Amino acid sequence: MRTRRAALATIAGAASLALPLSACGKNSESSSKGRTIGIAMPTQASERWLTDGKSIVKDLQGKGYETKLVYGEDDPKTQVSQIEDLVKQGVDALIIAAIDNKSLNDVLKQAADADIPVISYDRLILGTKNVDYYVSFDNEQVGRLQARYIVEKLGLEDGKGPFNIELFAGSPDDNNTKYFFDGSMHLLQPYLDSKQLVVRSGQTALKEVTTLRWDGPTARKRMNSLLAKSYSSRTVDAVLSPYDGISIGILSALKSYGYGSAGKPLPIITGQDAELASVKSIIAGQQSQTVYKDLRQLGEVAANMVDDILNNRPPRVNSRRAYNNGAKPVPAYLLQPTSVDKANYNYVLVLGGYYTAAELK
Ligand code: GAL
């Protein structure tokens, strides 16, 4: 018998490039009846993953699928056992946002043996050939948008400086961390070289600046220690933060050191995900920027892909390069992120229908 995985290998080769999102999944003779999709998300502690979960479920149910949504609460072992359970329950496809991108190899082998296709959602799963598609945002662009904001606001292109900056990165076990950091450093490095930007702590290597599990309190502790050790007689002008939860932790440390007063303004602080607390902080003039990623679209792309795979249609991919996960090139659909600050949040987030004006009060 020809397995679905063998069929997938064929349709991946035929996957069509760059069809508009609205074309995805339309005119389908879907046979979704009685089929169940397993969705494994990392944590409920961050608002974004709640939005992702809701949006994927809504899209799949709209196509007639049953769904089983689980959250691993940022514990890789919990996530592995949740996926094992979904495989045992005989789900028809899996959509997975990994907690630790290298911990899923064994369980994905079980999924492959059971002929269950796997979508790597937002975060690329590494080191296994048992992942069929990758749907995410252009993550290097996320990092570039954060760095560009700092470059523009400090006037670095006009030769201004020197300014003090500190760098934060995401979780070391998340493949996106490297993309975000590399994207940012690509733009910041020339200014570090010209000494318009100075990292007073000296911590510039990725391994020195990561934040395990993207945890806000962990970032707060590190910021406290940086402020105590390197800023007793100077001020920090910018902080590169890769994610809103981390930005909120950094802000809390800065406030406890007297930043945010007339004589000691807050530094420029970037972020990502346009989480509610951070958008409110931006409106209040505290966090400076975030990178908005429309998770409704990401959910829609993932749901359409599953629907295509289960109906033997080639899923749409739009990335010219397949993403090598160390075991194989994984065909990818990448969406574009948008930089948001006080000047454009209303246009992007409120008029775009992501938040209501009342939610941001
Ligand atoms: C990343 C994701 C970011 C952010 C972060 C923490 O993988 O791409 O948008 O959500 O995890 O949850």
At a glance:
With 361 residues, the protein is of the alpha/beta class. 40% of the residues lie in helices and 15% in strands. The chain has helices spanning 4-14, 47-62, 76-88, 105-113, 139-154, 175-193, 206-209, 216-230, 244-256, 276-283, 295-310, 345-350, and strands at residues 36-41, 66-71, 93-96, 118-121, 133-137, 163-167, 197-198, 238-240, 268-269, 289-292, 323-324, 329-330, 332-335, 338-341.
Name a few traits of the molecule:
Rossmann fold, 40% helix, alpha/beta, 361 residues, 6-stranded parallel β-sheet, 4-stranded parallel β-sheet
> In one word, what is the shape?
elongated
CATH superfamily of the largest domain: Response regulator
Element pattern in H and E: HEHEHEHEEHEHEHHEHEHEHEEEEH
Main β-sheet, spatial strand arrangement: 2-1-3-4-5-13
Rounded average pLDDT: 93
User: Ions, cofactors, ligands: which are bound?
Assistant: beta-D-galactopyranose
